[in-house]
Amino acid sequence: MTAATATTTTPAARAVKTRRFRQHRTFYLMVSPFFVLFGIFGLLPIIAAIWIGLTDWDGLNPAKFVGLANYATILTDPLFAKAVGNTIFIWIGSTVITCGLAFVLAYLINEYVLVGGGTLRMVFLLPMLAAPAVIAIIMSVLFSTNAGLMNAALSVLTGDRVTFDWLASTGWIKPIVIVMITWRFLGFHLLLFVAGLQSVPRELYDAARVDGANGRQVFWRVTVPLMLPIIFFSATSSTVGAFQLFDEPFVLTNGSGGTDQAAEVMGTMLFRTAFTEFEFGTASALSWIMFALIAVFTIVNSRLLRVRT
Amino acid sequence: MARRVITAWIWLIALVFVFPFYWMLVLATHSNDDIYKFPPPLLPGGNLSENWDRLLEVVALPQAVFNSVLVALAHTALVLLLSSLVGFGFARFRDAPGAKWMWRFVLATIFVPGLVGLIPWYVLIARLGWIDTLWPLIIPGAANGFAVFWMRQIILQTVPPDLYDAARIDGAGDWRTYWTVVLPLIRPGLGALGIWTFMATWTAFQIPLIVLNSQSNFTLPLAIASLNTLYGQDTAAVMLGSVISVLPIFIAFVLAGKQFMAGLTAGALKG
């Protein structure tokens, strides 16, 4: 019975379907540029990376299938552990400082600033317009041994001529990378938070006040919960950025990874493996490990922030 | 009273925040001898033209500016055209078979980090003969899921569906409707996305570093980075080069700051 109905309705249904497809030919034509371009330059490479990651390949000679050997090599490489450690250090440092500072500043600008709020936001955005190479050059001069303002300021404070080599120090290079990231992206996060704070209806604050809540209670019980989606977006984009981090440590250390690889992160390790050592197989495997880590941390992020609501 | 104090403090923080740019300008106008004196100079000096002459001798800066402008303009134009067209398709024909799934796919692409396919991407670019050309900076990134998402939202918000019927009655086909009705209406959205794309292209570093080899093809960030590696001792010239690389975009930003800021926040708040 069911089989009979199926055979009688299918051709008709198929005809309707074909007609609907034909009617929407314009739609498929209009959206096809995206799918064609993304298919070639986005999807194809990602799929190919799975295969290349299972081979030993230098980009020129024929690839040799090695199975999961590349993954084993990476996971047992002490430099990978170091790069992951550095990435996590810079990730946590830059996310906490950038998002935290941006939220506090946005709150203060929104609640208290009398003049020039719009100009202020533009001022904080300026570093984002500069190429990372430019920001790195400014940073490296600020922290340079002889002409650096940092050492000059310390010299004035201590009364001694300080000539500390900040950029060659293994302890300071990561904090300097964090300062650089914060400087570059603070304005972006600030802008998000200001826009978010302005979208909170004033009546909610008034209602909370009427119910007898003080300033701190209003902040924690009204402002923060309403801002959670934006805090989440801000922290997530900072996390995704940190795990793909490349520009800042690369230009700050002139591509060297810093003294004793103290500023080597996963992004610079991927670059070096692929384009200095020409180990395309290992680099592809590394890129998949990075992908997995980014996915995991994005999920952790969302869980952490959702638990609090 | 408290408000006035807080305002003053925040302005002070803002000044400290942009001070490094001011200092870059100061160093660009001094001789290298002045720069290494203690205490370092904090006011502009009179050595600008000598630094400029030296800078032009060592690096093809005008060529780099030209390359950067060309890449940023071409890529931005392509992104705007492609994403507005695709966004229009998704906004207009929501009940086409498969449209829902195709849209989910577009959204999913936003969350895929670009680095994952980097090596095969590079191999593909090499096979196309695009290494050391500006093409890989213009074409591949034009399929941008976020830009499509943003254009679709703008079109859904600003173009009333009645307008499509009116256009049809007037005898306009879908393509003509896109070009003569939709595009003019979404100009502010295009502007915001355009500035945002332009800026991202202008500061891009990693992909140009990977695909460009010769000085004459360098974009500004690469030229500045190579200037620093080769002539790092000449701090004054390097600083002047940096000033020149940020000047055009700073001016553009001052002129169109509002649209720029709208473009940046749109993704997070209109989702």
TrEMBL record, chain A:
Localization: Cell membrane
Coiled-coil stretches noted in the UniProt entry, renumbered to this chain: none
**Domain ABC transmembrane type-1 residues, every copy:** 84-301
Question: What InterPro entries is this protein classified in?
Answer: ABC_transporter_permease (IPR051393), MetI-like (IPR000515), MetI-like_sf (IPR035906)
Among PROSITE patterns, the record links this protein to: ABC_TM1
CDD domains according to UniProt: TM_PBP2 (cd06261)
Membrane topology summary: Multi-pass membrane protein
Instruction: Report TM segments.
Output: 27-52, 88-110, 122-143, 176-197, 218-246, 285-305
Predominant subcellular localization, coarse grouping: membrane
Keywords carried by this UniProt record: Cell membrane, Membrane, Transmembrane, Transmembrane helix, Transport
Q: Which Pfam families match?
A: BPD_transp_1 (PF00528)
What family classification does the UniProt entry report for this protein?
A: Belongs to the binding-protein-dependent transport system permease family.
| The protein's name | Carbohydrate ABC transporter permease
Organism, by scientific name, is: Tenggerimyces flavus
From TrEMBL, chain B:
This protein's UniProt keywords: Cell membrane, Membrane, Transmembrane, Transmembrane helix, Transport
Which residue ranges does UniProt annotate as crossing the membrane? 7-28, 64-90, 102-122, 134-151, 193-212, 236-256
Where is the secretion signal located? none
- Mode of membrane association: Multi-pass membrane protein
Q: Does the keyword Cell membrane apply?
A: yes
Q: Name one Pfam family in it.
A: BPD_transp_1
Per UniProt, residues of the ABC transmembrane type-1 domain are: 65-256
Q: Which CDD domains match?
A: TM_PBP2 (cd06261)
**Family of this protein:** Belongs to the binding-protein-dependent transport system permease family.
What name appears for this protein in its UniProt entry? Carbohydrate ABC transporter permease
